[in-house]
Design brief:
- This protein is mainly alpha-helical.
- It is built from four helices and two strands; from the N terminus they run H-H-H-H-E-E.
- 61% of the residues lie in helices and 4% in strands.
- The protein has a two-stranded antiparallel sheet with strand order 1-2.
Length: 142
Amino acid sequence: MAMLELERITARRNELDTLAEELAKQLTEVQAEREELVIAERVLHRPAEQHRAVAAAPPADYRKILAIVRAADGPVQVRAVGEELGLEVTARGKLQPLRAKMTKLADRGRLHKRPDGRYAARSRAKRGGRPTRHNWRSPDGS
């Protein structure tokens, strides 16, 4: 009788060993497929991330303003930026849209508005190293 019990135990152990091998193989296949899905998710998220990066970037006219201020030796007046952009600078009212854009850039941490009314570039380090996301449209659509 002990011999019969021993045979049953051995047979069951062999069944479990076979099952464990099958499950290990299945687990390996599941893990491999899961890794492929993680990679596929990353690939699918890239266009959305790129779109967000583009949306976070200011429009071209704001980028031109930033480039002019960054290229200057020091703080600049709105009039100097207007001249560089080729705007009519003799009439004060013609500079108001530009002044509003420069103020918006200062409000969003891209420029520093000095007490004397001039604007200076902010370093990326002072802004945390990365541009922040903003809706660049103003209520009037500019």
